[in-house]
Design brief:
Helix content: 40-55%
Structural class: alpha/beta
CATH class: Alpha Beta
């Protein structure tokens, strides 16, 4: 499948999922995950109308992203962030989806204080209690509320990567994240509108449960080289 066909197919599936869920497709952001994807291939995707891109590794992203300046693209860090790479991440990414522990959030807050600005991020939540995944545990309210109190972080919402399983279980995890986010809004008194959930195998279920961002790699670019 060509890139133009793949993007058209993804957009059609997103639109149908939104219609089924009685949602406005305009409220949904498609993030094309470009880990291991070459610059010319990303440039082709830009030419086809994509403007939000996700990277997983700082070393790879810092080589790619400058090649697209001054285009008004939005770059999302969707992979795990090590604390020693936090300053570079703050410099090159529009939104950091993987704030997965209090100490990392405190590091990012200090960077924001040094740079006299607020850094945009999402709380990564291990909603499925998966030992192989990163993220705040759902019951860690004290730590999560401490992150929301940091003055130089602008927490916009939440993100999750659910455990691999049947469609019904995956959708249940997405529903649980939405309900958890709603409870956090009540506890904190803050709006957290972004729900970053859903990847190539499960984005339609995520849309049905309220995703505002879906992170798609293989569905757009095909199988990646390792």
């Amino acid at each position: 499948m060509t890139l133009v066909d793949a993007i058209a197919n993804v957009r059609l599936r997103m639109e149908r999922a939104c219609i089924d869920a009685k949602r406005d497709p305009g409220d949904l952001t498609l993030i094309a995950v470009t880990k291991t994807i070459s610059v010319p291939r990303i440039q082709e995707a830009v030419g086809l109308g994509l403007s939000d891109f996700g990277e997983s590794y700082i070393q790879e992203a810092e080589k790619k992203i400058p090649q697209f300046l001054p285009l008004p693209l939005r770059w999302h860090l969707v992979g795990h962030l090590q604390r020693n790479k936090a300053k570079k991440a703050a410099q090159i990414f529009t939104l950091i989806h993987s704030l997965d522990q209090l100490e990392l959030a405190r590091v990012m807050n200090r960077i924001g204080q040094e740079q006299k600005r607020r850094i945009d991020g999402l709380l990564q939540v291990n909603i499925g209690l998966d030992s192989g995944k990163k993220g705040f545990l759902p019951q860690a309210w004290e730590d999560v509320l401490a992150v929301l109190a940091l003055p130089c972080l602008e927490i916009q919402g939440v993100m999750t990567v659910p455990p691999i399983g049947p469609v019904e279980e995956t959708r249940a995890h997405f529903r649980a994240l939405r309900l958890w986010r709603n409870e956090l809004e009540q506890k904190s008194g803050r709006a957290l509108p972004v729900l970053s959930m859903g990847m190539s195998d499960d984005f339609e279920q995520a849309i049905a449960e309220g995703a505002t961002c879906v992170r798609l790699g293989r569905a757009i670019f095909g199988e990646r080289r390792s």
